Amino acid sequence: MCKFSRFAIRKLGRGGTDMPGRIALKICPDLLGRLAKDVTTVIVTGTNGKTTTSRMIEQAMTDSGISFFANKTGANLLSGVTAEFAANSGTLSGKCRYPYALIEADEAAFKAISTFVDAKTVVVTNVFRDQLDRYGEVTHTLDNIRIGISHSPNAVLCLNADDSLSGSLAGEVENPVIFYGVNTPIYEKRVEEVSDAPYCIKCKHEYVYDYVTYGHLGGYHCPHCGYGRPEPQVAVSQVRSSDAEQSQITFRLDGTEYPAVVNLPGGYNIYNAASCMAAGKAMGLNAATVAESLSRFQCGFGRMEKFDINGTSVRMILIKNPAGCNQVLNFLSNASGHAVFVACLNDRAQDGRDISWIWDVDFEKLLDMGEKLDAIYVSGVRADDMALRFKYAGIPPEKIFIEKDYVALMEKVTAQPQPVYVMPTYTAMLDLRDKISRTYGFKEYWEA
């Protein structure tokens, strides 16, 4: 039924990433446990960076000759993961065609998924404040991940040493832990950010930082109780260069340095690369092979995805919370040339109904671009709210344009040669990407 419904839905031109799993779970609620029983599974969870990190690990596994499948479409709830396991079963009895699975798991759904999947590696990217109406405060997200890990006693944990929240999980479990982190500041100039974790998770005193990479990540320690950043086994020891296309970095792992080129821009992608290296170590992959693979992986749909439309370079960068959005602004404000900026804001259930987070984003940072910022277009269900936010950020009104029709929007922004950077929330990304695929002949998101 799962396979048949996915086939039918895709014949209708839709993704079929979630509904087939819902149908299957109605028939057999423990289906995922049956399908995943003999599959060596790697799970990637956390607030930001799950999809990109998963794509990096995919390339590393491919280059290492591992046969696997992955939920590339980002369907990361219980139903979506179940649908992916069913789709990759070679027989009606549920025997998987692959010995390995790489699964991106929503941080709230991880505790349910891990009930059925006995992961051998779990990668936690970070914990940031996200959709308050769904996740609540950061401690609630951390609790969900903690429960998921408690269901994964056989997993090696890859934890972000620079994140005081997710890093704290190491002291609560018996699992082997590999810490990864960045040993140096990433940006010369950073946006103004509100820390999601300014106080010690152990004793509630304020952290002191030797350096900050972004958000609440960096070299933290508590002067009261001594809790602080653990020494990472996988570390970015140097950021050699970073531009609009890539970052050149050096990893230090087991006393050896590995140069790497990350073929996506942005400091947060340096962290994603570090988590990939940690996952490779947990899986026993050759470190040099993993480092080299970072220059070849393909980004996930909407995650720094690049299109060439009528000769104009268009990058689509998913946003969903202040921390992630601020890192995109860090990237944009450090860009050297002229650019057009597009923000598409929706407030559907998958985006989060509460859009107040846009007032915690340092959009004022765009003023640093000066005349290099040619125009800002706003779209989506809450386009007017987004336009108001840019007005209060000090953007000149003559540079702000509202266009709610996605086809007309893309025609306008690609009618000039300057690069275009599109920041949509999740459902806006799906709608906009569908229009781009149908209008300009690109692959659908489930095919990318």
Polypeptide structure, described:
The chain is of the alpha/beta class and 448 residues long. The protein contains 15 helices and 17 strands. The chain has helices spanning 2-11, 19-27, 31-36, 50-63, 78-87, 110-116, 132-135, 138-150, 164-167, 267-283, 287-293, 322-333, 383-392, 406-413, 426-440; strands at 40-45, 68-70, 100-104, 121-124, 156-160, 177-182, 208-214, 217-221, 234-242, 247-253, 256-262, 303-309, 312-317, 339-344, 373-379, 400-402, 420-424. It has a 9-stranded mixed sheet with strand order 2-3-1-4-5-6-9-10-11, sandwiched between helices. A 6-stranded mixed sheet has the order 12-13-17-14-15-16, with helices on both faces. The radius of gyration is 21 Å and the shape is globular. The model has no long low-confidence stretch (mean pLDDT 90).
Task: Report a brief summary of the structure.
With 448 residues, the protein is an alpha/beta fold.
Q: What is the makeup of the main sheet?
A: 9 strands, mixed
Low-confidence stretches: none
Question: For the largest beta sheet, what order do the strands appear in spatially?
Answer: 2-3-1-4-5-6-9-10-11
What count of helical segments does DSSP give? 15
What is the CA–CA distance across the termini?
25 Å
Percent helix range: 25-40%
Judging from the principal axes of the Cα atoms, what is the shape?
globular
Q: How big a fraction of the residues is strand?
A: 15-25%
Q: How large, in whole angstroms, is the Cα Rg?
A: 21 Å
Please state the average pLDDT score: 90
Number of strands: 17
Secondary structure class reads alpha/beta
How would you describe the oligomerization state of the chains in this entry? single chain
